[in-house]
Design brief:
This protein is an alpha+beta fold. It has two domains: 4-185, Alpha-Beta Complex (Lambda Exonuclease, Chain A), CATH 3.90.320; 201-229. 41% of the residues lie in helices and 24% in strands. It has eight helices and eight strands; from the N terminus they run βαααβββββαββαααα. It has helices at 10-18, 20-27, 36-50, 120-136, 160-179, 197-200, 202-205, 211-229, and strands at 8-9, 54-57, 60-70, 75-86, 94-96, 99-111, 142-147, 152-157. Strands 1, 2, 3, 4, 5, 6, 7 and 8 form an eight-stranded mixed β-sheet that branches. β5 (94-96) and β6 (99-111) form a beta hairpin. α1 packs antiparallel against α4 (120-136) and α1 (10-18) packs across α5 (160-179). The protein is globular. The N and C termini lie far apart (58 Å).
Length: 234
């Protein structure tokens, strides 16, 4: 169990699973940079928030920007949207204030792009579900990710595999923050879409690459480029 003073952002889990170096740059070094993708993401979340803190749609009650926390995982944050679905008589659920019946939480996380190859988004929404389970004493089997680029929801099943990955990622996040060390990472294709690429400099911090080796590679590339363009040698 973690104390209130040791809680880390749920959003950091998404950064960690995507790239540990990105996570450390943001949450250890306090670095941030916007690009068109991050700005579009902010606008998407603003549109969600503009709809108000709560709403009712038939058998669904909607809460927005709902505060979350888990002392078991050491996480806190806010859910973009938590839908509460009315359950049939005899089915498990929770009671809502001034509302009859039993209701089951269903977290929905909003993303600007499209589904990713890794599980970083699924881990984030699963962490939200685990927080809700701890707070409300209810088991939550499913949630969803809404992607702005595809305009579609992707259902997420909180199965044992995703739950284990989420719990292990939370442990890794606390371990990373405790070391206070930003890991070095080699450049990967996904780096080109990262808003921190010019702060991260993945070509220059890859494991095993010395500063001298990095400078040599830069000069070699410059000579090659100038040779093709007929310019002066460096």
């Amino acid at each position: 169990m973690y104390s209130e003073d040791n809680l880390l952002p749920i959003s950091a889990l998404q950064h960690l699973v995507f790239c540990e170096r990105q996570c450390a740059l943001i949450h250890l070094e306090g670095l941030w940079a916007d690009n068109p993708r991050t700005i579009e993401g902010e606008h998407l979340h603003e549109k969600v928030d503009e709809q108000g803190p709560s709403e009712s749609r038939g058998n669904i009650r909607i809460a927005r920007s709902l505060p979350l926390r888990s002392l078991q995982l050491g996480l806190s944050g806010k859910a973009d949207v938590v839908e509460f679905h009315r359950m049939e008589a005899g089915e498990p659920g929770i009671r809502l204030e001034k509302t009859a019946g039993q209701w089951l939480p269903f977290p929905v996380e909003y993303k600007r792009g499209r589904p990713k190859r890794d599980h970083c988004d699924e881990v984030q929404v699963c962490a939200q579900a685990l927080c809700l389970e701890e707070m409300l004493g209810i088991t939550i089997q499913r949630g969803a990710l809404f992607y702005g680029q595809t305009k579609r929801r992707e259902d997420v099943a909180f199965d044992i595999g995703l739950r284990n990955e989420t719990e292990q990622s939370a442990g890794r996040l606390h371990a990373l923050m405790a070391t206070r060390i930003t890991p070095r990472m080699a450049k990967m294709p996904k780096c080109d879409n990262c808003s921190l690429i010019h702060l991260c400099l993945p070509d220059g911090n890859a494991p095993g690459l010395s500063a001298a080796g990095y400078l040599t590679s830069i000069f070699d590339q410059a000579r090659s480029d100038n040779g093709r363009e007929g310019g002066m040698a460096v």
